[in-house]
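Rotation project, supervised by the postdoc (A.L.). Task for the rotation student: set up a whole-complex structure prediction and record inputs and outputs verbatim in this book. Inputs entered:
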Amino acid sequence: MHLDHGDSYPHRHTHSAEPVRADGTRRALRVGLGGPVGSGKTATVAALCRALRAELSMAVVTNDIYTREDAEFLLREAVLPPERIAAVETGACPHTAIRDDISANLEAVEELEENVGPLDLILVESGGDNLTATFSRGLVDAQIFVIDVAGGDDIPRKGGPGVTTADLLIVNKTDLAPHVGSDLDRMARDAAEQRGDLPVAFQSLRGPEGVAPVADWVRARIAAWAVR
Ligand SMILES: Nc1nc2c(ncn2[C@@H]2O[C@H](COP(=O)(O)OP(=O)(O)OP(=O)(O)O)[C@@H](O)[C@H]2O)c(=O)[nH]1
Ligand SMILES: [Mg+2]
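Outputs recorded:
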């Protein structure tokens, strides 16, 4: 049987484009943010833009199923100039567009680099999904999985590839823990058990520290990227 699908078959990307292009310029570090619906992905993206935009050349791609709502929120909040915010309407299960057929997202990332580049950092927000959603390594270089304390303090224990393998796990909305009866120590213990040495950030975007620890994690990734 001949299995040559030519150009019409969705290409499976198993690794990203090289950091340094043929002409010697360096492409942006691409960081994906995934996680369940409403956990705080867009709020984290907005806070990261505010924290890092003075020191890094940044852009954002948002994924929504049927709308451009997340991009519109970021535009309204003016976290970046409008030409640095792109929306992909996935029209299907959100994980398909970040894992299986990543072509629309890759196109959005490459167009941003072309139109507003050179860029240091592109954040790609997945549509809200479930605990199994992860990004293709052909789309992003690092991924952050965002869960929140209101989703239940047993989420880290339940595992799933987002919780166990993401380069950074954010447990968001810690300010709500007392109101919803979530035990943060238990979440920290369970997360450590699932993730070994991989880092976990407990975050409240309503608190004084806000996104600062996650912004520091991004800075460290950028520093490592610059010497690759
Ligand atoms: N109390 C509290 N609320 C937060 C925090 N972070 C985000 N929120 C709120 O949680 C709600 C959902 O946040 P979003 O950032 O839209 O969540 P999302 O993960 O992007 O949602 P989808 O894209 O729809 O999956 C919003 O009302 C945010 O203001 C936090 O640290 N504490
Ligand atoms: Mg969102």
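Student's summary: The two ends are 42 Å apart (CA to CA).
Supervisor addendum: The CA atoms of residues 36 and 129 lie 5 Å apart.
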